[in-house]
Amino acid sequence: MKPNADCIEFTEAISVQDMRSSDAYTIANFVSGRELMYRAAMGVFQAADWKEKKIAIISGSGNNGGDGYALAGILAEQGVFPDVFRTSLKLSEDGAYYFGRCISMGLRVEAFSAETDFGNYDVLVDCILGTGFEGRPRGMAAAAIDRINEADAYVISVDINSGMNGDTGQAELAVKSDRTVSIGFYKKGHFLGQAPEYIGDLVNADIGIVYHPLSFSE
Fold first, then answer.
1. What pLDDT digit, counting tens, does each position of 108-142 carry?
2. How many CB atoms lie within 10 A of CB 218?
């Protein structure tokens, strides 16, 4: 049984900057970014029950969005076919690879719009904004967050709830999740600020990132 937020020590959490440093160090020395993205998606897949569920994955422009595309492919390989909604046409390099896989697998992938309705889904997966986001979400990202929060569905946020600051836990507008699956290490923002108001159950997916804080590189 993985821990929830009530039994995790704050000292186990790291800063967004140290997470980025650790991620870059691991990619430079041990594992490709594409493989880490796959592992992140597999960690999310293993953290929930997807059987006989109607699923929508909402993906943004960065690597957090790429995690969503990778997850969609994993689900499809297991015979579960999610719908994927894009809040941005931009793609990270690794995200573009998994986006291409979604297309080649024949998954429904379409742009999120003001007319998008999540009312018929059992599970919504939030992959819109990552841990480095600051401020208030705007445009389609903000609209998607509102639509997720309005829906009567089980919500899973990948790495952190979109709209929440990964260091401070502050949020002007953020996804309210039933489960948040942190990737690599817990972030300080999972426990601070308004995080308890937005995060339901909190678990971490260890994907083999080697801890290498920025101070090690200075």
1. 999 999 899 999 999 999 999 999 999 999 999 99
2. 6
Question: Which two tokens mark 198?
Answer: 């937005």
Q: How many CA atoms lie within 13 A of 14 on its CB side?
A: 21
The Cα 58–Cα 107 span in angstroms is 13
CB atoms within 10 A of CB 125: 30
> Hey, what domains does the chain have and what are their CATH numbers?
6-206 (3.40.50.10260)
DSSP 176: -
- Please report, for residues 17, 34, 169, the alpha-carbon distance to residue 213 in angstroms, rounded to integers and kept in the order given: 8, 21, 20
Q: Report d(CA 129, CA 141) in Å as an integer.
A: 8
CA distances from 212 to 18, 25, 129 (A): 7, 7, 23
